Amino acid sequence: MNRFTGKTVLITGGTSGMGLATAHRLVSEGAHVVVTGRTRARVDAAVEDLGPNASGSVADVAALDALDALVESVREQHGRIDSLFANAGTGAFVPFQDITEADFDQAVDVNLKGVFFTVQKALPLLVDGGSVVINASWTLHRGNSVLTLYSATKAAAHNLARTLAAGLGPRNIRVNSISPGYIDTPMYPAASLSTEEAAAVTDRIVAGRFGRAEEVAAAVAFLASSDASYVNGQDLVVDGGLLAAVPA
Q1: What region does 186 belong to: left with phi over 0, alpha with psi -120 to 50, or beta?
Q2: What is the pLDDT of residues 71-95, one digit of tens each?
Q3: To 10 degrees, what angle do helices 17-28 and 213-224 make?
Q4: Which of 122, 151, 167, 223 has its CA 20 to 30 A from that of 174?
Q5: Angle at 214 between CA 124 and CA 122, to 5 degrees
Q6: 10 Å Cβ neighbour count for 198?
Q7: Helices 115-122 and 148-167 meet at what angle, rounded to 10?
Q8: Which SMART domains does this one have (predicted)?
């Protein structure tokens, strides 16, 4: 498929995990992908890995001046953004009573403020008929005692997608969120778990395994493409059946 030939796609947090996998998927479909990361070394490594149809910028999405510089760089090099994957995120996986103000500020700054202003700053370059995909999480659909803060910020990100879908409707810009389940990524590597811990996760999933970053990338590619031209304001759960079904 070449659904993204001639298109420019911006992916925040695109140097590893789901962001990098999505960048690979979209490059394979003809896009020029701009990835962001927080260090020059990681950005350069990702761009080298992705090949000539990729470029990158160092940007902390929680810093508005960094977002301004990012968007200006994209404007100078490409003049437009056809699709945006607001993927950069962070997590504080601790019980509610142990969450500190620093934990709270970091999670809100990246997962909500960062997403909010990434879209706002990119909006002047987003073409009419373009698309935005926001990375949310399965945790917004179910309470979890050690994911209080993370879940709250991801729920806010999903709600932002729905309200933006309404607000950007006159420009035919579609905005959706994606909610990955347990995905084997550097943020949550399956190999870091003991056999018992891994089984406690996979026993709850109908698919019986962790998901792969490439499987999320395929879903993001669908939402960002014209194949999803009538999909707007939705949350696509990619979780192997974790939420919707009970393993036999």
Answers
A1: alpha
A2: 999 999 999 999 999 999 998 788 8
A3: 50
A4: 151
A5: 5
A6: 16
A7: 20
A8: PKS_KR
pLDDT in tens, 13-49: 999 999 999 999 999 999 999 999 999 999 999 999 9
The CA radius of gyration of the chain, in Å to the nearest whole number, is 17
Helices (H), the chain: 17-28, 40-50, 64-77, 101-108, 115-122, 148-167, 195-202, 213-224
Model confidence pTM above 0.85: yes
Give the span between the Cα atoms of 32 and 15, in whole angstroms: 15
The residue count for the chain = 248
**How many Cβ atoms from other residues are within 10 Å of residue 171's Cβ?**
13
State the catalytic residues. 150
Residue 42 neighbours by CB under 8 Å, 6+ apart: 15, 16
What is the token pair recorded at 130? 């373009």
Sequence letter at residue 203: D
Greatest distance between any 2 Cα atoms in the chain? 54
Residue listed under structure tokens 């003809």: 30
Give the dihedral sign, CA 30/224/222/42: positive
